[in-house]
Amino acid sequence: MYKLKAADWHPEHFKLEVADRVATITLNRPDRKNPLTFESYAELRDTFHKFQYVDDVRSIVITGAGGNFCSGGDVHDIIGPLTKMDMNGLLTFTRMTGNLVKEMRTCPQPIISAIDGICAGAGAIVSMASDMRYATPDAKTAFLFVRVGLAGCDMGACAILPRIIGHGRASELLYTGRVMSAQDGLAWGYFNDVVAPDQVLAKARDMALSLANGPAFAHAMTKKCLHQEWDMSIEQALETEAEAQAICMQTQDFTRAYNAFVAKQKPVFEGN
Length: 272
Hints:
The protein is an alpha/beta fold. It is built from eleven helices and nine strands. The strands form two sheets. Strands 1-2-3-4-6-9 form a six-stranded mixed sheet, sandwiched between helices. Keywords: Lyase. This is Enoyl-CoA hydratase.
C-alpha cells in the first residue's frame, strides 16, 4: 500500500517535526510575524494533501514562531504583486488559497492550532480551518480583509466562521475587520481554551497526543462527518452516521476497547 513518512519531509517554507505520531507545523518567519508567501501557501496546501497518505501522523499541531501565529499574506511578497495581476492570475491565486482550506478540512487527522500574538488575515483563516484552537491572553485574531479594501468572503470565511461563533458575531468581524480578543474568542466558542503563553503549545500538543493515542480511524470518520453533514438534513445525517458507525464497529480498535473493558484495562488503540 502507498504510504509516506512525514518524518522524512523537509519543507522549505516552514518547520515540520514529527514525534509520537503528532506532526507540528511551525510558521517560521518571526521577524515579520510569520506571514505567508505564494510559495508557503502552496507548500502548506500540498503538505496537508499528503497527510492522507502517511502512516506516522495521527494528529497535527500548527503554530507560529516568535510569539505570533501568522500575520497573513506578506505585504511585499503577495499584496504588492496582486495589485498588478490580471483576472486570470488573481483567480488562480484565490483558488489556491481556498484549496489550502480544502486540504486542511479533508486531511483525516485532527488539526489543532496553538495561537499567540497576531493571528490575522490568512493566519486567522488557518486557525478557523483547524478543528480546535488554543490561545494565549495576548492572541489577537482579525479577519481584516475589509481593511485592505477586500470582501470578508475570503477562503471560506462566510461559510465556516458563522458555524463556529454564530452569524451575528461573524458578520461583525467580517464587515469591520476588527480584532477578536482572546476573551471574546473563548466566550464565543472560537477558542477551546485560553492559557499562558508558555503553556499554549504544550496544551495543543497534549490534546494532539491524546488524539494520536486514540482510535485514529474513528477520529478520521468523526472529522469527515463533522464537515460533510453541514449540508445534510437531519435524516441524511442520521443515515450517514449509522453507516459510519457500522464501519467503525468492524475495526480492530472497537474489539480492543471491548476486550480491555472486560479485562478492566485501559484500551491501547492502534488505529485500525
